[in-house]
From TrEMBL:
EC number: 2.8.1.1
SMART domains (UniProt xref): RHOD
Origin organism lineage: Bacteria, Pseudomonadati, Planctomycetota, Planctomycetia, Pirellulales
Species the sequence originates in: Anatilimnocola aggregata
Occurrences of domain Rhodanese (ranges): 30-120
Pfam families: Rhodanese
Top-level enzyme category: transferase
Gene name for this UniProt entry: glpE
Gene Ontology MF terms in the entry: thiosulfate-cyanide sulfurtransferase activity
Alphabetized SUPFAM superfamilies for the sequence: Rhodanese/Cell cycle control phosphatase (SSF52821)
Name of the protein in question: Thiosulfate sulfurtransferase GlpE
Keyword annotations of the record: Transferase
Length: 124
């Protein structure tokens, strides 16, 4: 399902100011200590998610990031379903002073397509 045009424009604008990385690079960075943050909705995270990821949905990430990553130099990789919401989240984190944040290009779809490890959520 295509995204509404204004949302696509917002995400495209954010992508001009952020770094995007591949799923393989995200996994490698996660293995060396980067935080992998799932910015999807709780219901999406509850179905399945990238192994070891932390859930901070797009709606609350700006509010809850500081207790999770008090050091603004913490390596952080955000992902969503397709790379749009996470791009907006990363743009906002940069505005908050975080200096080592990236968005997973293609989101969770790209993670799964790369056959990287996933784990089930709590959905019944």
């Amino acid at each position: 399902m295509p995204h509404p045009p204004r949302f696509e424009k917002l995400a495209a604008d954010a992508k001009t100011r952020i770094r995007e990385i591949s799923a393989a690079d995200a996994y490698k960075q996660q293995q060396t200590g980067a935080l992998l943050i799932d910015t999807r909705e709780e219901s999406e995270f509850a179905q399945e998610h990238a192994i070891g990821s932390i859930h901070l949905s797009k709606g609350v990430i700006e509010l809850k990031i500081e207790p999770t990553a008090p050091d603004t130099a913490t390596p952080i990789i955000c992902y969503c379903g397709g790379g749009y919401r996470s791009a907006i989240a990363v743009d906002n984190l940069q505005k908050m002073g975080y200096t080592n944040v990236q968005s997973l290009a293609g989101g969770f779809k790209a993670w799964k397509a790369a056959n990287l490890p996933i784990e089930p959520g709590t959905a019944k």
